[in-house]
């Protein structure tokens, strides 16, 4: 009983969560229910027509009645077919709208989660929730619930009519029902568990495939294609095994319930035959009774199958709603403060401490720094010093544990994230472009920009020349992640995209560290254009960038250990000198005349 109660509670919870999404389509739902009632009523009327046909038309030899009954049945079945079509259409329309809303809300909820959310979640798993789990819920909304109602009505209606027709035979029919219902609950629970395991394993396999596809060059450069194919094949085998287990559970459910249901029919036929032979029952009544018994058997079998599907849907829905219920780690303030206009770009870090989790060590420890409007500041230090973390706090990708980060005197936690990030431009070291045209990528941050503004930004970023040389120019498709373009071309498009946004503050994870000399020169010139009159924070990799900065912050162990310009830091900072000498020695060893690297990401 506890299991039945738990299953019922989950089902009620599923229906309760879906009800607000279905409510706007109440008119369609009401129409579908009305048509379903009409169709079911016709189905329940059919055995009565057959009873009259056998007892009156055949026994009395009334050919005219036979003709009228046949025509009447054709008319009823036509009405039933139209009713079924209308009900199916209305149900499908409602389910499409509801699931589209679920997918929109889920994607919107996920895309507003901070970057830290994706560091502990697999992207493929999230994609599976939007696609596969939502599809399971859609199937039960489109077919399952309507069929559960239809078969439930058939079951109740047939039982009522059976009781009216012959209570004794009804009692025989009912003796097997508890067994059939119990089997349905028991194996339905197994189907739900097996389905949940399949969905989890499929999500894992999809996640692995997405990782391989996005890193295909790395996979192929290490000749790991066969290994990855074997690993994916192993995960798909797990899905297959889980699917077989689910199939066995479903088949067992269907077989056991079918045996129970049609065993009842056999008993009814036996007992009813005895009554006919004894003259206590007419042949027509027995046939009608058998038809109702078949209806009951079919209804129980269908209900058992749809009950299993409903359990699958409740499992899928629980995973979807788990994501939808995940709170935002970073919420907008209840009453956001507007940024002073125009935005000057004064940035202040005051006693900033930060860690990525409550049980993890501090990454930043007591950061204090003031950056004037329009100032260019480079951050250098060994890997893990805290450079990327420091700049990530400004657009509020993460929140400080202690202290504050201020933009133009306002704590970023008091600003609406959309307004804050709207005045900050970010150029990562490896920019990712979206599958689509170059124009669509350029307009990503400012969709209302004119064609002239797009071209002006592309020219300033030294991108117009290679774009114009493409067969379709700005309407050329760039492929997934911009793979059809070179690294330098992708970088210049990313710079043009930020130029078009016209931010007051820039964050650069220096874009030229992995480019050849010619591409580096073009990108560096584009960056110079981008940095004009803008406050700029640069995670520096190359000495050329450091020399262009007005200030250099040296980070070590989450602290700013020095602050100055290049020649001053060479004289007084042992760490800065070590970074410089290391890169100088590497450059000389490789035959380069002058050092080009400083620090690493």
Explain this structure to me?
The structure is a single chain. The protein is α/β, with parallel strands linked by helices. Helices cover 65% and strands 9% of the residues. Among the domains are: 310 residues, ABC transporter type 1, transmembrane domain (ABC transporter transmembrane region fold, Up-down Bundle), CATH 1.20.1560; 70 residues, P-loop containing nucleotide triphosphate hydrolases (Rossmann fold). It has a six-stranded mixed sheet with strand order 6-7-8-3-9-10. A four-stranded antiparallel sheet has the order 2-1-4-5, with no helix packed on it. Strand 4 and strand 5 form a beta hairpin. It is elongated, with a radius of gyration of 35 Å. The C terminus is likely disordered.
Question: Which tags fit this structure?
Answer:
20 helices, 601 residues, 4-stranded antiparallel sheet, ABC transporter transmembrane region fold, 65% helix, alpha/beta
Question: What's the quick description here?
Answer:
65% of the residues lie in helices and 9% in strands.
